[in-house]
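Internal tracking record. Fields below are filled automatically when a chain is submitted to the structure queue. Please do not edit lines marked as system-generated. If the sequence contains nonstandard residues, flag them in the REMARKS field before resubmitting.
Queue: standard
Priority: normal
Entity type: single polypeptide chain
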Amino acid sequence: MEILDLRQFRAHQLDALLEEERVLWLKQLRWDYRGSVDLINRFVESRSLPGYAAVSDGEVVGYCFFVYEDHKGLIGDLFVAQSHRGPLEARLLVHVIETIRGTPGIRRVESQLMMYPLEALEPIFRNQDFRCHSRRFLFLNLADLPPLPPRQLPGIDLVAWQENHFDEAATLITRAYANHVDSQINDQYRSLGGALRFLRNIIHYPGCGTFHPQAAWAAFPSGRPEMCGLILTSVVNQGIGLGYELMRRALESFRAAGYQGLSLTVTAANTAAIRLYERMGFQTLREFSAYVWNSDSA
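SYSTEM-GENERATED OUTPUT FOLLOWS
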């Protein structure tokens, strides 16, 4: 078994492995992974995706890639063919972690690998001095969802998402996640610049799915410009039923468009959000972890 630089390979050499991964995402998480596969193929073909591939008898049987973003490295994906699972995940991860941490100027490493349950990877990351934050992947069957009653929100105006909402949304994210566990997992929530980058990644890039503007809503106190609630891929719960109503509108939009299900991820420590999602009918499909390493806490 060899571990080689991923940039030595062409996209067609990963076809069988990525197809196996696509099938598993659909089967286990009900997630159409084709958009992510297309993106990975594009970067592999251009030899611009840093990472490592595991090769056995000339066949690529596993890979792990990462990207750099300012002062941190993000481990984007890890996948090993079913026929070779075991110690190989650890070998690939350690190669990637050592490469990222050995890069000048890197002070932080983040990763969320939903394909693997937490017990599969957590010992590896803990051994590398990462902090682990338990998360859940939830799914809601829209076909079986009964009608959800709307909630009246006096003094709140709900408007469809618009491109000119970026600055207000970034300000809201930094306020909502101040001292919140999710800002420990994703440091983009801590600054306006990071929040803007987070929003643009969600809306303009298909790596985590295609943005669905019909299910995107912003909330404003009547007559005021400061955004107080937002739903894109997450909900800001203001405690007056705003989170519920934003979520309800998004669900009804997806159902009207003919979608059969809806999924989301949530940090296990965010119990208020979990209660809301479970009341609306979401069920946990997978428990996994978000992993974070900081140079000042190693």
